[in-house]
Amino acid sequence: MIDWDDVRYFLAVARGGSVRAAAERVGVNHATVLRRVAQLEERLGAQMFERLPSGYRLTAAGEEVLEFAEQMEVSSHQLETRLFGRDQSVRGRLRVTLAPPLAAHLLMPDFGEFARLHPDIEMEILSSGELANLTNREADVAIRVVYDRKTLPPNLHGLKGPELFGGVYISRDRLAACHAGVPDPIRWIVISIHGIPDWAHAGEVRVAEVPFRVTDGEAQIVAVRQGIGMTTLPCFVGDADPLLVRMPGTDLHMYGTLWLLTQGETRKTKRVRLFTDFVSRRLAAYAPLLAGLSRSPN
């Protein structure tokens, strides 16, 4: 019999291209990955990988095994999901994935309250820019901003929430300096490789040709607070910050609609139903804030 755990490590190496990447993906040490792959190779009587200076490359035998290993993975996820859906206890782990700003600036107090109401549920908040795969059980619930409903995967069950808007924000002190006649053009603060939007140059304020770049949303907020320039932020972030103000002469723009997403049998579990009902009510209450019509979530 082939051990599914050995297959799981094989898949991690095949996808990561190295033992180190596989170890990080699975959350084990380097030696464990090597041992598991060696066990699979011994059981099948074939070498799965070529060890190259650039990493691990599948052999012809490994390519054949990969197809069946992926089928095993799908079957394993389906079995886990089916059994998970039968769990009606208010106990166990609940993994929620969402973008970092939604966790840090809006919903963390609500997650805390839910945890206090249900102390036997182990909350795991996956706040990352990467989309977790619900089908593969990487998370139980996803809170996502969706611009086009047609892009939602058909196998996911969705609860539609409020619309999310953003605006252009600047520090109050920097805006006051502009009003006082400080002639310096204002830098546009952007994340990573994004550029200055074309419409920025059509506003009332002179925008510098050279942007100020950061790598994440929190650095973006700190940069605008420091008066480095202006930037786009979700209204629930910018309006709630006493150091920031909307840039005069700019309009709000829609990011998309918030959706609570679950998959198949997972949504039938009691703790998932309790959580989605709880959060959907909170999101509905935040609708004015999310739309830029309110100044504070409290």
Summarize the structure.
With 298 residues, this protein is α/β, with parallel strands linked by helices. It has ten helices and eleven strands. Strands 3, 4, 5, 6, 7, 8, 9, 10 and 11 form a nine-stranded mixed β-sheet that branches. The chain has a two-stranded antiparallel sheet with strand order 1-2.
Summarize the helices and strands and which ones pair or pack.
Blueprint: H1 4-16, H2 19-26, H3 30-44, E1 49-52, E2 55-58, H4 60-85, E3 92-98, H5 100-117, E4 121-127, E5 141-146, E6 156-171, H6 172-179, E7 187-191, E8 212-214, H7 217-225, E9 229-234, H8 235-238, E10 244-246, E11 253-263, H9 270-285, H10 287-290
Parallel strand pairs: 3-4, 3-5, 7-8, 7-9
Antiparallel strand pairs: 1-2, 5-11, 6-9, 6-10, 6-11
What does this 3D model show about the protein?
This protein is α/β, with parallel strands linked by helices and 298 residues long. It has ten helices and eleven strands. Strand 3 (92-98), helix 5 and strand 4 form a beta-alpha-beta unit. The longest helix has 26 residues, at 60-85. The protein starts with a helix and ends in an 8-residue tail after the last helix.
Order of helices and strands: HHHEEHEHEEEHEEHEHEEHH
Class from helix and strand fractions: alpha/beta
Helix content: 40-55%
* Biggest pleated sheet: 9 strands, mixed
- How many alpha or pi helices? 10
- The low-pLDDT segments are none
Number of strands: 11
The CA-CA distance between the termini, in Å, is 57 Å
Residue fraction in strands: 15-25%
